[in-house]
């Protein structure tokens, strides 16, 4: 479906001095869409109109550090607890009469998994796109195969160098990653890429977004993840199997930790499954939310 931006409302909310931008559309049960790295609310351009047409109210934020949201300084500002608290603040500020469905892709998926553990009262259903449960990711880091796929996470621990590499030649590395990742020709148009470049060009944006990875490896940051609590709400994991960053073996969460999960694999989709195979993703999403 085509996104009609004239039907979107651009809004801001604030938590602990950090202003968060989000787009909102539709009426009905609340669905919150959390984008990944290095993206923005616009990554959900195919899902927003489908959800609105199906009778849902959609909120799609720019995660802190991204696009029009504030970019607080310091690695600690991007600790997982700060990110999940932002999601809680968005839901509470929405005035929704019931708990929300939360949908997360990539880093947004990581935030969504942790949000489900920390704020179960605010969550009705959970949808994850190409992001392993935190415990599965930790297990993956113990294998040479996943470590090779995750090389960039360790490169991002360097100070300043990743930012310099990423912005070289008008963000060529990031543009090529988004352009070449999808299996579907034309999944990422030049006009789409221009939206991402504008987001990366915001002052402080590159450092802020890379700080997600730096915060992830800070001492103590994985303490809660190593002993995760159960997620009892219904969970749908959608997994594009041509994922160059995450092994397909990471898709299914431990049933003892996530007893009500279903995994839907899409063989001809990449890591960016939400715009690579949007019709299939929308079908799965709407069937699950009904």
Automatic annotation (TrEMBL):
Entries under InterPro entries matching the protein:
AB_hydrolase_1 (IPR000073), AB_hydrolase_fold (IPR029058), Epox_hydrolase-like (IPR000639)
One GO MF term, please?
hydrolase activity
UniProt entry keywords in alphabetical sequence: Hydrolase
Instruction: Outline the extent of the AB hydrolase-1 domain.
Output: 29-278
- Report the SUPFAM superfamilies cross-referenced here: alpha/beta-Hydrolases
Q: What is this protein called?
A: Alpha/beta hydrolase
- Provenance organism: Sorangium cellulosum
